[in-house]
Amino acid sequence: MREVAVIGIGMTKWGECWKSSLRDLFVEAALKAMDDAGIAQIDSLYVGCMSGGLFNGQEHIGPLMADYLGVCPVPAVRVESACASGGVAFRQAYMEVACGMSDIVLAGGVEKMTDVDGSEATYALGTAADQEYESFHGITFPGLYALIARVYMQKYGITSQDMAAVPVKNHAHGLKNPNAQFQRAITIEEVLHSSMVADPLHLLDCSPITDGAAAVILCPLEKAKSLSQKRPVKILGSAHATDSIALHDRKQIEFFASAAIASKKAFAQAKIGPESVNLVEVHDCFSIAEICALESMGFFAPGQAGKAAGQGITALGGKLPVNVSGGLKSKGHPVGATGIAQIIELVEQLRNEAGQRQVQNAKIGLAQNMGGTAASSVVHILEAC
Amino acid sequence: MAGIVGYGSYIPRYRIKVEEIAKVWGTDAESYKKGLMLQEKSVPAPDQDVITMSVEAARRALLRAQINPQHIDAVYIGSESHPYAVKPSGTAVAEAIGAIPEVHCADFEFACKAGTEAMFVAYGLVCSGKIRYGLAIAADTSQGAPGDALEFSAAAGAAAYILGNDNVAAEIEETYSFCTDTPDFWRREYQHYPEHGSRFTGEPAYFHHTLSCAQGIMKKVGKKPQDFKYAIFHQPNGKFPMLAAQKLGFKREQWEDGRLSPTLGNTYSGASPMGLSAVLDKAEPGDLILLVSFGSGAGSDGFVIRTTDRIKEIQAKAPRTKQQLDLSKRYLDYGTYAKFRGKILKAE
Amino acid sequence: MFPAKIWREFPQRYRLEAAKCKKCGKTFFPPRLVCNSCFHREFESIKLPWEGTLVTYTIIRTPPSSFSDQAPYAVGIIEVVPGLKITCQIVDVDLDKLASGQKLFLEFRLIQKDGKQGVLCYGYKAVPVADYNS
Asked: Which is the catalytic residue, given A171, A240, A283, A333?
């Protein structure tokens, strides 16, 4: 297996991109990533996209993007693992380069979610749960995470106010990210007074509906210097794990076993532990998700992450900065692109190019991307070279 | 002798008061409360229909009958609000209670008489020996047009009867039917709400058929009103069954336990069968019961029923009708009721 | 909704049929072809009870398109036998009086309608345990 590096990154501005189509978004991000790396051609293409079918009536997204990116006839495939589609696309690209099949692979992600109305988007996202035994009964994704939140809050005595510190922190981070959907600060009171979406989750506990794309270029570490002027960022660990599709089949509802197993494997591959990580991008689709993901991966003991945001531990400048990009909450959550954007944030930080939100002396970063109620989790550990 | 092996009823938890409906249409609530003896009525939740209520009532009948559902050879549902215009309700109920696939299924329709019609046919097949057990269900989520007099009474409920030859808790001693072509109440194909002949629904329709049927069956069995412990009549409101009972010579203590309409409303096909379930809930062994249904169009089915010793064993095995009627009520305002019943015009 | 999609789930939705592993005894709802605990492939068909205990719940206020007329409505995870949980709606309740740990009954209800013309989809929903039930 070869060591693999990321040499190019690119993303669109995220938000409600009324004028951009699914293909426009992806091609813009892909071109930016190719330009960033300084390369003109790729050997292979992976596109993370959760539901082109339901959001845009478009499947067969691999060749569509290869065509409009002008790289036909390179192999191109769409990767779907719900909201982990981007992270899994990145891992597919990593494996293709690591095993020696290809040298330059583009891993991107895209979702164009505003071509349907809110209830249709809610339905489309709901297909990531067990269609016959969860979604059939009218549960939504905010609803599923609300079920998790209630268990966690009751078990550890955490309040809605404690939980609200997570989006408040992530919005403060997003304020410093020019690509973020929401560049505005919010307060605990605003979170608590925002409308209830699925008790106990308020609107501001939830990541938004977002259009956007992100792309990165991977190549063998040994060739990074010759292919690109950019400071390469090395992939230290890559792991992916699954769990029951239905939340009700979990023994412990508030523990993400897939994140625990994927992170354990990624740490083992990287030969480091959680204490060596300088910054983390976790899948905060809902505020409770950031809390549970951090605990499941061993960054906090059970019950301890619930107050971490409020205590400033996970803020930029804190002991363990989490979601300095703004996270899914403030940066936005175009579901198929999210996993790639997490990698982009780590690369910018490890290149020391993150500007106002730069984590000082960032050497190692971890990204955790998950699908459904953590029925799949993909974890990557990146290191500055 | 063939008869009722098990019975069960189901009443939705939602209610609306007569005053709440009267307020919206500017009508006089007192005229309904005093004139028709209606106080409130049951309302089906948006996720309840004839199939769901029938399944619940049938499960309760099975709890009392304590038979293997595979031994039910016929499932008949009488209703004028079957959820599908084409596709049987009976198959869904048979599937849900585990009576499939060796079972005869049919849906009956005869305005408010459809329920006793199902009982009549199932009983006949049991008597003939063609079937071992027959499940007859009377259920409706009755329709009444907004503002129409029927809106004050149209209610929802179901009663299920398992008929058989063994382990009988109430023997059916005689049946009798009385029918003429009398268009007092109808609903044409594709119409949401029924039409009715106003006061024509009274004397020539309800009373003529109900009284004739009651007199006919009593003559057939050689009994007089005083021979019966209980008498149950179709109950489109609180007043009609009382007047019918009085005209026939029944006393209040004979008819009041089976008259649920003042607080239940008119459950159409379910009305007299639900009244019977309330009576069976409190009957003693050997009690003689007269049941007379009425369905517009028009006709009445009569049954003479006598409870056996087994009635005491099965009463407590499932929720009693009166308890469902009196406990766990959830009152609705008219707006929510209109939403529940699909009476609000929405964008497509 | 194509009718076959709901029809094949009737044993579960209508009768709560589950599968119990003949080797290790683990129960699955819906039934599976292979046990995820001992990998055995033979099961005994059993029926789950129509009651359970509420583990956690939420109130859906922004529903998916097919449930838009129903909101707000409660959905919960209910343990029906030790170690076996299901997800379904909780109806006929005061939404502010739900509590984890409370006992619930299951009733047969309409879950979804496929528009005005399509099939009716029935299944189980949880309801409060009434005074007359206890």
From this structure: A333
pTM over 0.80: yes
Q: Is A219 in the active site?
A: no
Lowest model confidence (mean pLDDT) among B33-42, B85-94, B184-193, B204-213: B184-193
Which of B40, B56, B82, B112 is an active site residue? B112
- The yes-or-no verdict on residue B348 having pLDDT over 80 is no
Structure tokens at A289: 């998700």
* pLDDT tens per residue, range B45-81: 999 999 999 999 999 999 999 999 999 999 999 999 9
Whether C86 sits inside 8 A of A199 (CB atoms) is no
Name the class of domain B170-311: alpha beta
Q: Is the pLDDT of residue B94 over 60?
A: yes
C61 and C98 part of one domain: yes
Picking from B47, B97, B141 by the largest number of C CB atoms within 10 A of its own CB, the best residue to mutate is B47
Output B301 or A385, whichever has higher pLDDT: B301
- The CATH number for C129's domain is 2.40.50.840
> What is the extent of the structural domain holding C34?
10-48
Q: What is the pLDDT of residues A316-357, one digit of tens each?
A: 999 999 999 999 999 999 999 999 999 999 999 999 999 999
Q: Which of A133, A150, A249 sits opposite C58 (nearest CB)?
A: A150
Asked whether residue A370 falls in the same domain as residue A269, the answer is: yes
Looking at domain B3-169+320-340, its CATH architecture is 3-Layer(aba) Sandwich (3.40)
Q: Closest partner residue to C66 among A123, A148, A150, by Cβ?
A: A123
Mean pLDDT value across residues A240-263: 98
Contact A196 C65 (CB under 8 A): no
Catalytic residue check, B80: yes
Query: What average pLDDT score do residues A210-233 get?
Result: 97
pLDDT bracket for residue C134 (50, 70, 90): very low
The answer to whether C108 contacts B56, with C-beta atoms less than 8 Å apart, is: yes
CB atoms C132 and B51 under 8 Å: no
- CB pair distance less than 8 Å for C122 and B52: yes
Residue of C nearest to B344 (CA): C69
In angstroms, what separates the C-alpha of C132 from chain A's closest C-alpha?
Answer: 27
Cβ-Cβ contacts under 8 Å, C127 against chain B: 13
Which residue from B14, B46, B98 is facing C69, i.e. has the nearest CB?
Answer: B46
Domain boundaries, chain B: 3-169+320-340, 170-311
Q: Which domain holds residue A288?
A: 124-206+236-384
Q: What is the pLDDT of residue B144?
A: 87
- Is the pLDDT at B288 greater than 70? The verdict is yes
CB contact under 8 A, B84 and C120: yes
How many structural domains are present in chain A? 2
State the nearest Cα–Cα gap between B197 and chain C, in angstroms.
Answer: 30
C21 with C66, same domain: the answer is: no
Residue A112's domain is classified under what CATH number? 3.40.47.10
In a domain, C79, yes or no: yes
A abuts B (3+ Cβ pairs < 8 Å): no
- Model pLDDT for residues C67-111, shown as the tens digit of each residue: 988 999 999 999 999 999 999 999 999 999 999 999 999 999 999
Mean of per-residue pLDDT scores for chain B: 96
